[in-house]
Amino acid sequence: MSSQIKQIQAHYLPIEDRILLKIHTDEKQVFHAWLTRRYLKLLLPVLQGQHPQTGEAIFDTSQNSVEGNPSEEPQFDQAYQPPESADFPLGEAPILLSRMTFKGFDTDFAELILEPEEGSGISLSYQPKFIKALLTIIQQTIETADWQFDSFIHQSPESGVLQ
């Protein structure tokens, strides 16, 4: 995804027993993806800043500052508003996420790519401030779902991962 993310929403759908993740960008691109319990067990530690293979801390929680104009930063705490005349690069139907890939992991432009079994996925910036916002949104939705992920949601301060 080459454009900036404008809004993110995660919503639990009981009939599906999964979470619908909606993302739209400043270029009116819309991405919909299903998050299952199994996938979230893999994704949550990564969003908490743990290396996917070693479990070691990837970034320091003190790296939450972002340079630039604060008025240009996404507002993740506002109600989701889908853009008019939206473009759906992955199709209008949500993709079912099953894999994740890192690109540029050892650079300042690291990306986390959330992918279906086949086809294109959603590329997200793996920067502390954005990842923390995404984690917060997903944690709130997990609490609504009552999936009892307490061990994944509440990490100890000594672990060096995002809270």
- Domain count: the total is 1
Oligomer: single chain
The neighbouring-strand order within the major sheet is 1-2-3-4-5-6
Helix content: 10-25%
Structural class determined from secondary elements: alpha+beta
- Low-confidence segments, ≥5 residues, pLDDT <50? 61-72, 154-163
Number of strands: 6
Cα end-to-end separation: 26 Å
SSE succession: EEEHEEEHH
- How many H/I helical runs? 3
Mean pLDDT: 79
Brief summary of the model shown:
The protein has 163 residues and is an alpha+beta fold.
Please supply descriptive tags for the structure shown above:
single chain, alpha+beta, 163 residues, six-stranded mixed β-sheet
Question: Would you spell out the secondary-structure blueprint of this structure?
Answer:
Elements: E1 5-13, E2 18-25, E3 30-35, H1 37-47, E4 95-103, E5 111-116, E6 122-125, H2 128-145, H3 150-153
Parallel strand pairs: 3-4
Antiparallel strand pairs: 1-2, 2-3, 4-5, 5-6
How would you portray this structure in words?
With 163 residues, this protein is α+β, with helices and mostly antiparallel strands. Helix content is 20%, strand content 26%. It is built from three helices and six strands, in the order βββαβββαα. It has a six-stranded mixed beta sheet with strand order 1-2-3-4-5-6. It is globular.
